[in-house]
Design a protein that fits this description.
Layout lengths: L7 E7 L4 E7 L1 H8 L6 H18 L6 E8 L4 E9 L3 E8 L11 H5 L6 E8 L9 E6 L5 H12 L4 E7 L4 E8 L14 H15 L4 H6 L2 H9 L4 E3 L6 E2 L5 H11 L1 H11 L2 E4 L6 E4 L1 H7 L3 H4 L9
Parallel strand pairs: 5-11
Antiparallel strand pairs: 1-2, 1-10, 2-9, 3-4, 3-6, 4-5, 6-7, 8-9, 12-13
């Protein structure tokens, strides 16, 4: 939470204890997401919390690729999705049902789990896939009444990691605190080993301290002040901050690949009906248009490209 308006993620660990933490202010990125689409307040809160959570989880991954966090719903909200890459560049969007009616006090359950069929999905998509390699995907039922609880339950069930999250978002701000209990690996040259009881005691104390944090306090207090206010009695090691940002990875090439996957018949059907194929990116609003020549070029084969008189449009 610097005075330049730059988003900040601050990692820290409890010295001589198996607990790590992160505080994030990702408000600038969150406001950038909202310039693309207006969301009702309850949807905005949930998506804003997911933006903070995705960056917090991604920052702990030793993984060159993207983490994609999705909640698929069976109510007025059909999908919430946030994507964060290894450089903490994020994009996010929400899809509402065509007939969605959303009250100001609607909960996560009301919006996404109205009939008990909502589900939470995390996908790890490597940047440099090996031949035949598929993204890792974890899918669980939507277990919890808020975004933080859903993710905590997922992390415990799928990753066997005790994780606590405190998230807050409104129209202007998206912020969060993550605490995680690490496996015990004994001591190092600098530190004596700690016992399981000592590790548990430190973890429980950290969670109690985090639980004193109120939403309003999280939304309106700088990282530096929160660190001091919450953990002033603890011995904390603080690392260099990193800076998340908004970024959309859409491109004309990727849209073209998607149209190729749809197939020539489907694309030509849209062309015949509309005169062009128009695609808008759900994440950033970028408009892509393909006329008849563009579409023909998508489906030209290498042998056709070498025929005498053939022309390629560039």
């Amino acid at each position: 939470m610097s005075n330049t308006g730059q988003d900040t993620l601050q990692k820290f660990i409890f010295e001589n204890a198996a607990v790590r933490g992160e505080l994030i202010d990702i408000s600038a990125t969150w406001r950038e997401v909202q310039t693309r689409q207006h969301y009702p307040a309850p949807v905005r809160k949930l998506l804003g919390e997911m933006v903070a959570a995705a960056a917090l989880l991604s920052a702990n991954l030793k993984f060159n690729g993207s983490i994609i966090m999705q909640i698929h719903g069976d109510g007025p909200v059909r999908l919430l999705v946030v994507e964060c890459d290894a450089e903490l560049r994020l994009r996010a969007t929400a899809k509402l049902a065509p007939d969605a009616v959303i009250g100001d006090d609607a909960t996560l359950t009301d919006l996404l789990h109205a009939h008990g069929k909502g589900r939470f999905i995390i996908t790890l998509d490597p940047a440099d896939k090996l031949p035949g390699q598929q993204p890792y995907q974890g899918i669980v039922p939507l277990d919890g009444g808020d975004v933080a609880t859903v993710i905590e339950n997922y992390m415990l069930r799928s990753e066997q990691l005790d994780t606590k999250l405190w998230l807050a978002a409104d129209e202007q701000s998206s912020r969060g605190l993550l605490l995680q209990k690490l496996p015990l690996h004994g001591g190092t040259a600098e530190a004596a080993p700690i016992t399981a009881d000592e590790a548990l005691e430190t973890w429980n104390r950290a969670v109690i301290l985090g639980s004193t944090l109120k939403q309003e306090e999280l939304l309106n207090t700088t990282i530096e002040v929160l660190m001091q206010r919450l953990f002033w009695e603890e011995t904390i090691r603080v690392f260099d901050p990193v800076h998340p940002s908004f970024h959309c990875s859409c491109s004309r090439e990727k849209v073209g690949n998607m149209l190729q996957m749809l197939g020539r018949e489907e694309v030509e059907s849209v062309l015949a009906e509309q005169g062009q194929v128009a695609i808008n990116c759900d994440f950033c609003g970028q408009h892509y248009a393909y006329d008849a020549v563009d579409c023909a070029q998508l489906f030209i084969t290498p042998s056709e490209a070498l025929l005498p008189g053939s022309e390629a449009k560039h």
